[in-house]
């Protein structure tokens, strides 16, 4: 049996925020960003961001688990925007998916696509009208 047959996809718990922050950091490194370019307090910055997004932006995360280990994750939330949003929510309730990450040995098995699907289902359930995602060169074919 392949690992994919034993992958459990589920909503992340609050206790997994730290691991999601770790995945977000590793995602940047995997995309060729030098560790020197990353703030030394990256972990706390990410945890604070998640806490604030959960409070104000309907943040939710999803994880992929294999043999009791989290091997992938993604986060999603309402998009805070780059300018004042004067449109009614039914016309412009944008959302954002970020931090899509799967550990190297579990890639190319459809896990990222399944995590994305869970995030999209959640964002549809909260009536988002559009989803924004900035994909890495490796991620573009997936999304």
What's this model, at a glance?
The chain is α+β, with helices and mostly antiparallel strands and 143 residues long.
Task: Describe the SSE topology.
Blueprint: E1 8-11, H1 17-30, H2 42-56, E2 60-66, E3 69-78, E4 94-102, H3 111-125, E5 130-133
Parallel strand pairs: 4-5
Antiparallel strand pairs: 1-2, 2-3, 3-4
Helix pairs in contact: 1-2
- List the domain count as a whole number: 1
For the termini, the CA-CA separation is 26 Å
CATH architecture: 3-Layer(aba) Sandwich
The number of helical elements comes to 3
Helix content range: 25-40%
What is the CATH superfamily? Answer: Gcn5-related N-acetyltransferase (GNAT)
**Amount of beta strand:** 15-25%
Give the strand tally. Answer: 5
**Which overall shape is indicated by the principal axes computed on the Cα atoms?**
globular
Mean pLDDT, all residues: 92
Major beta sheet, specifics? 5 strands, mixed
* Element-level helix/strand string: EHHEEEHE
Strand order of the largest sheet: 1-2-3-4-5
CATH topology: Aminopeptidase
What radius of gyration results from the CA coordinates?
15 Å
CATH class: Alpha Beta
The helix/strand class is alpha+beta
Low-confidence stretches: none
């Amino acid at each position: 049996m392949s690992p994919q047959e034993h992958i459990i996809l589920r909503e992340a718990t609050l206790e997994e925020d730290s691991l999601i922050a770790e995945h977000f950091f590793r995602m940047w490194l995997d995309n060729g960003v030098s560790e020197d370019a990353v703030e030394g307090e990256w972990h706390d910055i990410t945890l604070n961001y998640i806490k604030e997004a959960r409070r104000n932006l309907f943040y939710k995360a999803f994880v992929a688990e294999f043999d009791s280990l989290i091997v992938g994750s993604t986060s999603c939330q309402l998009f805070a925007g780059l300018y004042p949003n004067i449109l009614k929510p039914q016309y412009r309730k944008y959302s954002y998916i970020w931090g899509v990450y799967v550990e190297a040995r579990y890639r190319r098995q459809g896990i990222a696509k399944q995590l994305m699907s869970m995030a999209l289902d959640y964002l549809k359930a909260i009536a988002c009208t559009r989803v924004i995602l900035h994909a890495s060169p490796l991620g573009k074919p997936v999304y």
